[in-house]
Every structure is written in structure tokens, then in C-alpha cells.
Design a protein that fits this description.
The complex is a heterodimer of chains A (about 425) and B (about 475). By secondary structure, chain A is of the alpha/beta class. Chain A contains nine helices and 28 strands. The chains are: A alpha/beta (about 425), B alpha+beta (about 475).
Chain lengths: ~425, ~475
């Protein structure tokens, strides 16, 4: 890479690429490999950390790759399969490279220890992943002692930096990372006292409830939340209350639980600061970009996949989605991709959010969505007006699991918005 | 250990640090004793961060005079110390005839106090200034502003340290004695022998005053809770919006921060507990409701954080709030400057308060100016505030400038390391946060707190279990997991 210098007129050197991929986690890696397979070689992958792999690097538990590889891998193993392929194919990538801005003209500014770089790309792929919701965003009252960590921060301390966050632990929220951390902390000798979940159903996968809590005798209390945090220096304990049907704490149900560590697993949100910079339309429901069936955003040439688009449950689907995205990017660079948005896809009854949000053509695509509540023996229906396009009965639908529905080419008509619903 | 010092300043908050910095202009050895591991752990860092115009205080009081002076010098201080300060103006919004009378009285009082830039404006002018506010008219104070209270206090303290003041952090004063015309101050294993003592202990000032033998002050705590809102809302609020004030309370207001967030608060609840900063959930709802009357844009989902602060108010036997008390009681405690009830507008008035302290000292002793005093703080520029050209040059000089640690706020490894090596020797997580803005962004440190902790270990040689979050004893980690 040429260093950032100025020519005689004082203009900055700008490097051109067909594709700039922002983020070297599972989404960016899968997109890079798939683009290479499709003959797009003028690509650069940018990763802000020192290593490729994204959050998978700190997910040292197994269970990754069951659907893709038919075996249970650890996070680093799963990532390594893609990293190896990126290296074998000689795809250009740079670590320690933080993108600081993205313009609608697809100009990407990057800060690295070897200088500032500016790329002008035909296509940009947003693959920055997601961030955890913090204490502030769920407004937990009380004091601000040390010892309150998000689950991912605690996981990084333990698995990357060899540091123990605490000894006596309460976990708020039953998201998957929280469940994984309950087991991890227990195995490292901590006393994990309980997991409290404000909703009436667990937020993580069934297998994690069984393997991370049940197997270790860690109780899970549904319809409970932390209503006060105690301790001036280090956390001394939390007050937990039961909540009513509207998730409002019920007075008189307060119980004090001493602990020195509170782990928050209260949800993930797309890491989308750059999306705002580029003026890309955002879907308030996913907090990610609103995309079409090729995963292109409202700004032509800027695509998005993985957890920065919508939070996934399994990394296997992130890889799959990013490979589909690569197909669209390849067509876009070849000049053959429709991007006039003609129809909307609407999250109907019982559906929390859906991707894509827009359609430009009647080519085949995949719908991904999450349901709002637990149900059994219900039907997922995709319809355009009164015409049913796909209908499928599900033994069980769980908000913790993403649902994917493949839509065949030619099945969507030219008129009328498409609606996904649970009936 | 026994330390000899000319002046011992007790308390390193905005008042103690302003006094220390002013003292460092003179040929004196100055020591600051601060009980916390940093200088912004209490009231100095927990307030609305408004630079007041000086109209809200009774004419003839120290509060009025020193506030007007402080407002006037803030541009210079901001340049010297490198803290963000925006003279954005402020409005006090009213609706009724009674409101108008009160605002006119407030304006007249402001002019008597020497404040400038005050005018009553009608609704259309008000809505030009602040489009999204509810109100029929307002008192507009063009000279009011906002600043970064952390960097203001840190700037004063670090510049004082650069000019030779010694900071003793985590030094809580336990006893003060007097021997052979000098004060003996005990703190843990250390003893300080000082000719002068200055009580700038803020929330702890009454306790120190008692130790000096100056007893009988009644000080109550007034706790204010605040909400912090997302940057999304800053475009709707170009300046602080206040209700019509009563004689004793400014009211719940909405205030933009210099970083583009919005704060909502404070309520004012009397308390005897000067150490409890918890924000109860009913107070969160109350703040949102009360402020929405003035400025109807506050949604629960925009709240990113809450905080609270406590003001020490000196009251008389009937509970009426008094002026700042800044005194030397030659009869009881000669060569001890006693500051009681330093509350709002203490942030605005910090440097004039310091100069007032020195004028009291100079009535009793001769002080000689030093030639070497440098009012400009030597902090390195933050990467986030550099142009692309400057960034390129900085990285060429040191690649650590190009190593992003906090991408939300664009804080680099070079920024973090410079902050860890601050002149006060502060090495807490929040110490780095307030100096760099790392961990203040959207992910609230989720991606970078670990890296900052690692850098603290590496740069200071501390063990993992000795790294603190904010206060003494606020251990962040239980230690290493394995020996490897």
C-alpha cells in the first residue's frame, strides 16, 4: 500500500479499488472469498483489530459451523477456515486499519499505524458487526461502582487478555453471550448465582440454556430484572425485582443479592456509525441499513451484511448472507444490477423485523426475520396483497432464532408490497 | 513520610486546583491533598457544565461578583488550558405575567451585578434562537456558555502541576494540628507541615473547617440527578434552556454539552449523605416529564446514561441558603483560608475564587511572583481534533498515532499513553476516559476498555488487580486468570 502523501498541488493520493470491505469478521471474510471466486480480485479488506476474525476470536466455546461444515468448531477455528482461504487466494487485507469515514461517493478514509489512506471504491461492503447494549441504554438505576461488565467485554477480558472480571457473579439477560459466560465463569471457579431475564422467555438459543445453565445448576429466573445497583467502589450487590406483563417492576418483590460482578447480556445493536455518515437509510427496527434483495443499501454501490445489517443468531447464516451479498456486488460491478426500489417488504403480524426491506426485481432471494413472541404450531406466511407466495407451518417459533425463507425467482409480482406475518 | 510545604491545599477539585494554579504564579511550594485518585470524582465533574452570566445572584454577594468575573475570563482560560468552551448563550423561558416580572427583576439584578448581554426577547426571537422550545418569551443571556467540566478541572490541575505544584492523590486528611506556628496535617502514613492551609474540600469542607477549629457551619447537600441524551438531539438545542428561576433554585433545565449530547436536570433534593450518587428510577421519569414542558423532545430511548451530583450549600439556622464563605479567622486559625458552601456558580467562578483567596493571603503576607510561571497547559493534541494533514504528520512521527483504540471517539494509542502519563499520576479507567473521551461513545467502552486496562498495566507497571475504575478500592479485575 502506498503511503498517504500529497502531490505537488497538495492533493491527496487516492487509491482505487473495485471493492472495499469494511470489517474482517465472518461477514467480511466470507464476502472477500466469494468475490474472489466470482472473479473480482481488485478488493481490499480492512480490519480495525490486529487480527482477522472479528468477535469470533474471543468465542472459544464450540458450536460454530454445525450447519455449514457439519461439525462443531470453536469461534477461532471457524474464522480460521475463512482466514486461510483469504490468504491462499492472496486477497489483499490490512489489519490495524480503522475506517473513520465513508462518503456516499464511496470514498473511504482509513487510519493505520503506517499512515492515512483514502480509497475510492466501485462498491463498498459494510461488514462491521454489532455492539452490545450497555448499562446506560437499558437505564438500570443505582450507583456506578466497578464490576458491571457487558458479557462481551467480560469474555474479551477472559479469553483474549487472561484477566478475571470478578468472583461472585449475577447475570442480567439471557442472550447467548450471557449464557456462554455463565458457563465460562463457572469453569474458571467463579460463583455464578443466577441469570435474570426481564422477558417471559429466554433470549438465547435452547441449546445454550441446556448446556450452559442446566448442566451447571445455574438458575434462570424469567420476568425478573435488576432494579438497583449497590456499591460506591466495587459492586457489592444488586436488587432484583419481578416484573409485570408490561415489564414494569412490581413493588414489594425486591430481593437483594450480594455479588461483586454484574454481567449484562441485554442485546446487540448494529455498529452503524459509518452508516449515518454516508446518509444511508436506516431501518429503525433492525438499527441496520434498509437493503434490497441484493443487500444493497439506499446508496448505490454500498452493500451490507452480517450483524451490522441485522443481528444474527448463528454465524453460519452470517457467512451465507455475505456470500449472497458478494453475488450482488459482482453483478453491480459488472453493471448488471437493478437498483430501483419498487416494492417494500413489511414486517407484518407477529414479525419484529425483516430483511430485505425493499425489492428491485423479481429474482430469487432470501427473506430473514425474527418473530415477536414464542409460539408453537404456527404458520409463517409471505404474501403480496391477497396472493400467498410462501406458507410454511413451524412446530415452534422463537424470537431468539432467525427465520429464513427462500423466495423463488419470478414469484413476486410487479405491484403491491410484500408482507411477512405469523398466523 | 514528612513533607514540608508552604501551602497545603485540601481538595483538588475545580476550586482547589484553581487555587493551586494561582498559587503557582508565586514563589511558594504548594501541595494539594486530594482524597480521590483523580480531581473530578465529586462535584467538579457532576453538574450542568454551564458558564453562568451572573444575573441570578443577589447583588453584592461573592457569588454575583466572582461569577461575573469568571464568565469574563473563560475565553482566556479555555485557550490557556485547552478545554472546550462555547459561548452559546442561554435562555430563561417564561409564559405568564408573573414570569415576565420575575425575568425583568432577574435582568435588572444582572445589570446591577455587572453582567452584560442580557435582554428580554419575544416569542418569535426565542424561536429563532431555539426553534423547538415551548415558551412565549425569554430572558436571553448572550454571554452564558457551556464547557467541559472534566477538562476544565483537569486543565487547572495539570497546569498547576506543570508549574511545580505537587499533587498527593488518595490522601484524605484525618487530623490537623498546629505546632510552632505551622500546621501539621495527617493523612495515612504521611504528615504535612505547612505554613498555610487552604480548605477547598467541597463536600468535605465542613469537616476540615471543624478540624481547623472553625466550627458551627451548617452545610446541607443538594443532590441533583441528570439524564444524558443521545447526540441525535443536539441539533434541536443550540443553547441551554431554563425555566424562570425562583430565588433559591434554577429549575430543571436542558443543556447541550460541548460534545453534542444533551443533559436534563437537575432536580434538587436535600440530603445528608454526601457520598451516594445513585439515580433512582422514579427520578429518571420525573426529570423527563419536567423538562418536556420546556422542550418536548425527550424520548426514553434517547437516554444513554444518568448521573448525579451534590452541591454543598451553607445555610443559616432557618435553612436559608447563604453566600460563598471565604475567610481567614486570624483569631482561631491564622494562615488558614476557609471556603464553605462553594456550590453553583463555583465552576464559573473558580479562578476568581482562587484570586480572592490569594488577595486574603496577601493582606497578611508578602507573595513574590515567579518568572517561570507558564499559564499554557502542555497537553498534546488529541487525534480526534486534528485535520487529515496533521493526522498524517503525527502518524509519520509516531505510528501509535495511527493505532485506533476507541473508534467511537477516535482516540488513538498515542492519546491513551499521553493521558496515562499525565502530570498528576492519575491511572484510573475514568481518569483516562475524562482526559481522552475514550469509552464515552456509542459502545461505552465495550470494545476498548480492555485495551485501555492493558495499556495502564503496561505503562505504569501495575498489576491487573491494582487497576481501579474510579475511586480508591474500585478494583476493576480480580487479577490474572492463569500465570501464563
Amino acid at each position: 500500500m502506498a503511503s498517504c502523501r500529497e502531490d505537488e498541488e497538495g492533493l491527496r493520493m487516492i487509491e482505487s479499488r473495485d471493492v472495499v470491505i469494511i470489517g474482517g469478521g465472518p461477514a467480511g471474510l466470507a464476502a472477500a472469498v466469494e468475490l474472489d471466486k466470482r472473479g473480482i480480485h481488485d478488493v481490499v479488506l480492512l480490519e480495525r483489530e490486529h487480527e482477522l476474525g472479528g468477535i469470533l476470536r474471543q468465542c472459544i466455546h464450540d458450536g460454530f459451523g454445525l450447519s455449514r461444515f457439519g461439525e462443531s468448531l470453536s469461534g477461532p477455528e471457524y474464522a480460521q477456515r475463512f482466514i486461510d482461504e483469504v490468504r491462499e487466494r492472496g486477497i489483499e487485507y490490512h489489519t490495524d486499519s480503522t475506517v473513520t469515514s465513508l462518503s456516499p461517493e464511496r470514498i473511504v478514509k482509513v487510519v493505520t499505524p503506517s499512515g492515512l489512506y483514502i480509497y475510492k471504491a466501485k462498491a463498498v461492503i459494510l461488514a462491521m458487526g454489532c455492539k452490545e447494549r450497555s448499562r446506560g441504554s437499558v437505564m438500570i438505576p443505582g450507583e456506578r461502582p466497578a464490576g458491571v461488565f457487558t458479557a462481551g467485554t467480560a469474555q474479551a477480558y477472559m479469553n483474549i487478555y487472561n484477566r478475571m472480571p470478578g468472583r461472585s457473579v449475577i447475570i442480567l439477560g439471557s442472550g447467548d453471550i450471557g449464557l456462554i459466560m455463565a458457563r465460562r465463569l463457572t469453569l474458571e471457579g467463579c460463583s455464578v448465582k443466577a441469570v435474570f431475564e426481564i422477558q417471559d422467555h429466554p433470549n438465547g438459543l435452547d441449546r445454550n440454556i441446556s448446556q450452559c445453565l442446566d448442566d451447571y445448576g445455574i438458575p434462570l429466573y424469567l420476568r425478573h430484572t435488576v432494579t438497583d445497583i449497590h456499591g460506591r467502589e466495587r459492586l457489592e450487590g444488586v436488587t432484583v425485582s419481578e416484573v409485570d406483563g408490561n415489564m414494569v417492576p412490581i413493588p414489594g418483590t425486591e430481593e437483594y443479592h450480594p455479588c461483586d460482578t454484574l454481567i449484562l447480556s441485554v442485546g446487540l445493536r448494529p455498529e452503524n456509525d459509518l452508516i449515518k455518515d454516508a446518509g444511508i437509510e436506516i431501518d429503525e427496527k433492525t438499527s441496520g441499513a434498509a437493503v434490497d434483495e441484493n443487500l444493497m443499501t439506499s446508496v448505490p454501490g454500498i452493500f451490507s451484511s452480517g450483524n451490522v445489517l441485522h443481528v444474527h443468531d448463528l454465524v453460519d447464516f452470517v457467512s451465507l448472507e455475505s456470500e449472497r451479498l458478494a453475488a450482488g456486488v459482482a453483478s453491480f460491478i459488472g453493471g448488471g444490477l437493478a437498483h430501483d426500489r419498487t416494492l417494500q417488504v413489511i414486517a407484518g403480524n407477529g414479525v419484529a423485523h425483516v430483511v430485505p426491506q425493499h425489492l428491485c426485481s423479481s429474482s430469487a432471494f432470501s427473506l430473514s426475520f425474527r418473530v415477536r413472541s414464542l409460539s408453537s404450531d404456527s404458520v409463517v406466511r409471505v404474501r403480496q396483497g391477497d396472493r400467498v407466495i410462501v406458507e410454511k407451518r413451524h412446530r415452534r417459533l422463537n424470537p431468539a432464532e432467525m427465520v429464513n425463507v427462500d423466495i423463488a425467482a419470478g414469484s413476486i409480482g410487479k405491484e403491491g408490497n410484500v408482507e411477512v406475518e405469523v398466523v | 513520610m514528612l513533607y514540608y510545604t508552604d501551602v497545603a491545599v485540601i481538595g483538588g477539585g475545580v476550586i482547589g486546583s484553581a487555587i493551586a494554579r494561582e498559587l503557582s504564579r508565586y514563589d511558594l511550594s504548594v501541595s494539594v491533598l486530594e482524597r480521590n485518585p483523580d480531581v473530578v470524582c465529586e462535584t467538579s465533574g457532576r453538574n450542568s457544565a454551564v458558564v453562568h452570566g451572573g444575573f441570578a445572584y443577589d447583588t453584592g454577594t461573592l457569588k454575583a461578583r466572582l461569577c461575573v468575573e469568571g464568565n469574563q475570563m473563560m475565553d482566556t482560560l479555555s485557550r490557556e488550558l485547552g478545554f472546550p468552551f462555547i459561548r452559546c448563550g442561554k435562555v430563561l423561558v417564561g409564559n405568564t405575567d408573573e414570569d415576565m416580572e420575575q425575568l425583568e427583576r432577574t435582568m435588572a439584578q444582572g445589570f446591577r451585578n455587572g453582567a452584560s448581554g442580557l435582554e428580554i426577547i419575544d416569542g418569535s426571537r426565542l424561536h429563532e434562537l431555539v426553534p423547538a422550545v415551548n415558551g412565549a418569551f425569554a430572558l436571553f443571556s448572550s454571554r452564558s456558555g457551556i464547557l467541559d467540566p472534566f477538562l476544565f478541572t483537569i486543565g487547572l490541575a495539570e497546569n498547576a502541576a506543570e508549574n511545580g505544584v505537587r499533587y498527593f492523590l488518595e490522601h484524605e486528611v484525618e487530623r490537623i494540628g498546629r505546632e510552632d506556628g505551622r500546621y501539621l496535617i495527617a493523612s495515612g502514613d504521611d504528615l504535612f507541615s505547612a505554613e498555610w492551609v487552604i480548605n477547598a474540600a467541597g463536600l468535605g469542607a465542613r469537616r476540615i473547617s471543624d478540624m481547623l477549629g472553625i466550627t458551627g457551619y451548617r452545610v446541607i447537600g443538594s443532590k441533583g440527578n441528570y439524564l444524558v441524551l443521545d447526540k441525535r438531539l443536539s441539533s434541536l438545542l443550540p443553547m441551554p434552556v431554563y425555566p424562570v428561576p425562583s430565588n433559591t433554585y434554577m429549575g430543571i433545565h436542558v443543556t447541550p454539552t460541548v460534545d453534542g449530547n444533551v443533559t436534563v436536570g437537575p432536580d434538587a433534593i436535600n440530603t445528608d449523605d454526601f457520598s451516594y450518587y445513585g439515580v433512582p428510577s422514579d427520578k429518571m421519569a420525573f426529570l423527563q416529564e419536567s423538562a418536556s414542558v420546556l422542550w418536548p423532545h425527550i424520548r426514553r430511548r434517547d437516554v444513554i446514561r444518568t448521573f448525579s451530583g451534590i452541591l454543598p450549600k451553607w445555610v443559616d439556622a432557618e435553612g436559608r441558603i447563604q453566600d460563598f464563605r471565604i475567610e481567614i479567622r486570624d483569631d482561631i486559625a491564622p494562615k488558614a483560608v476557609n471556603l464553605i458552601g462553594i456550590e453553583s456558580p463555583g465552576l464559573t467562578a473558580a479562578v476568581p475564587i482562587a484570586r480572592h483567596v490569594i488577595s486574603l493571603m496577601r493582606e497578611r503576607t508578602e507573595l513574590h511572583l515567579r518568572e517561570l510561571f507558564d499559564p499554557v497547559r502542555k497537553a498534546s493534541r488529541r487525534f480526534a481534533s486534528m485535520s487529515d494533514e496533521e493526522r498524517g504528520m503525527a502518524i509519520a512521527e509516531d505510528p501509535l498515532h495511527g493505532h485506533m483504540v476507541c473508534s467511537c471517539e477516535e482516540v488513538t494509542e498515542a492519546d491513551i499513553i499521553a493521558a496515562i502519563h499525565n502530570p498528576l499520576g492519575v491511572s484510573t479507567i475514568t481518569g483516562i476516559k475524562y482526559r481522552t473521551r475514550a469509552m464515552m461513545g456509542g459502545c461505552q467502552g465495550g470494545f476498548c476498555q480492555m485495551k485501555i486496562e492493558q495499556l495502564i498495566e503496561k505503562e505504569t507497571g501495575k498489576k491487573a488487580e491494582d487497576v481501579c475504575y474510579m475511586r480508591s478500592g474500585s478494583w476493576l479485575l480480580a487479577g490474572k486468570m492463569r500465570k501464563a
